[in-house]
Amino acid sequence: MEKNRHYVIVGSGVASVYAAKAIRDHDLDAEISIVGAEPSFPYHRIKLSKGLFTDLHQEKVSIKKEKWFVQNKINLQANTTVTSIDTVNRTVTSADGQMIAYHKLLLCTGATNRKLDIAGAALPGVHSIRDRNDADRLKAALQPGDRIAIIGGGVQGVETAWSFIEAGYAVTIIEAAPRLMIRQLDERSAALLEQRMLGRGADIRLGQGVATITGSGRAEGVELQDGSQLPCEHVVYSIGIVPNITLARQIGLEVRNGILVDEYMQTSAAHVYAAGDNAEFEGRVDGLWGSAIEQGTIAGSNMTGNPATYKRPVPLTLFNAFDTPLFSIGQVDEQCDISVTGLTEEYYSRLFIKGGVICGAIVFDNAAASLPYKTAIEQGIRLDGLDLQSSSIPDLMAEVTKRSQYQHQ
Ligand SMILES: Cc1cc2nc3c(=O)[nH]c(=O)nc-3n(C[C@H](O)[C@H](O)[C@H](O)COP(=O)(O)OP(=O)(O)OC[C@H]3O[C@@H](n4cnc5c(N)ncnc54)[C@H](O)[C@@H]3O)c2cc1C
């Protein structure tokens, strides 16, 4: 092992915490530093939509307590933005002029919210939530009775809408696609969710782009592409992410949408790794919490010389808003060979099957039972010999679980 080992991680999100943990698990003596632009300990970013009106500064929102960093001798330098990297001399330099030497470098710079590119988007009253500051600023700007227009009906937009409604604000969700949460839901489950949302006071405009944000001096409304006007005091948009790859570009790493990494989370430069929302693996930036944890862990392990490879997790969305717990897992599109549907008035589930194995599932009104579906997809349990047309989903899942256990005996 090299002497003077200093692992430096740029960015203090979830990927960096799990990378630091993996490094410490394998290397008890090395120095580990996380250098992050945000002022605090790494926190559960996903709480910013699900728990917008809870106290986002309480300790339990942190991913690990301060004690954990001390015990594991992980040096966290908050409020510090890295502005340049020298890969020849292996140093990073921060905005305040500090130079830090590394022997292995990990970029966990995450992503920024995609900017809304329409007239009026820069007006006060237009918000997008990526970090705790954004959430604090938005909450401080609210007045009782304010109306909120939410642009983007993906998971984050719908969860944010529910937070506002629970806090007593009037909400309209505007989504350009023909249905909400189009990556997670099929037509039927999206329609059921929409009914629930309407029943709990949300106004929903589907298949509608926003043409402009109107107002003089501050946002006063949005104008939709069909010319209709929605007066509101605030606009909150959530229309995707842009990976933070400026530093990677500066040092000539191969980038496309994100920083290109192989299955070891290694970039195109020696000693430099990337993980989380800034990393592009096999043509895609995952942009998901679970992937950031896994990629951070894999990167950390490889940085210490313990080979581990990244296998993209089956995408799983656990959702619980508008009194509707649901999960969506794997590939849930109409490209499957066959699907099995379970439906009563209030309950809906659907299994998507391709090539004799389950490739995806949507279960509405029950988010607790996702594990058997995840296992079935990950293990590729075959459904041979089962009568898919006349079996119910619970029967199929019982059989799949049995086969999965048998496979592991
Ligand atoms: C409101 C919200 C809700 C979400 N909900 C879900 C969900 O339900 N499920 C899900 O799977 N995912 C969700 N996500 C996405 C999830 O949060 C991300 O995938 C995850 O946080 C990525 O972690 P990361 O460590 O890669 O990056 P980030 O969490 O983005 O952290 C990167 C950190 O690096 C810092 N940084 C950037 N550049 C520099 C620099 N030059 N120097 C120093 N520091 C720098 C940033 O300030 C930031 O603190 C949500 C995201 C948001 C914003």
UniProtKB/TrEMBL annotation:
Q: Name one Pfam family in it.
A: Rubredoxin_C
Please report the stretch or stretches of sequence annotated as the NADH-rubredoxin oxidoreductase C-terminal domain: 315-381
| Keywords carried by this UniProt record | FAD, Flavoprotein
The coenzyme or cofactor needed here is: FAD
Give every FAD/NAD(P)-binding domain span. 6-296
Tree of life domain = Bacteria
Is the keyword Flavoprotein assigned to this protein? Answer: yes
Q: Which GO terms describe its molecular function?
A: oxidoreductase activity
The protein's matches in PANTHER family, at most eight in alphabetical order, are given as:
NITRITE REDUCTASE [NAD(P)H] (PTHR43429:SF3), PYRIDINE NUCLEOTIDE-DISULFIDE OXIDOREDUCTASE DOMAIN-CONTAINING (PTHR43429)
Q: What is this protein called?
A: Ferredoxin reductase
User: Species name for this entry?
Assistant: Paenibacillus albidus
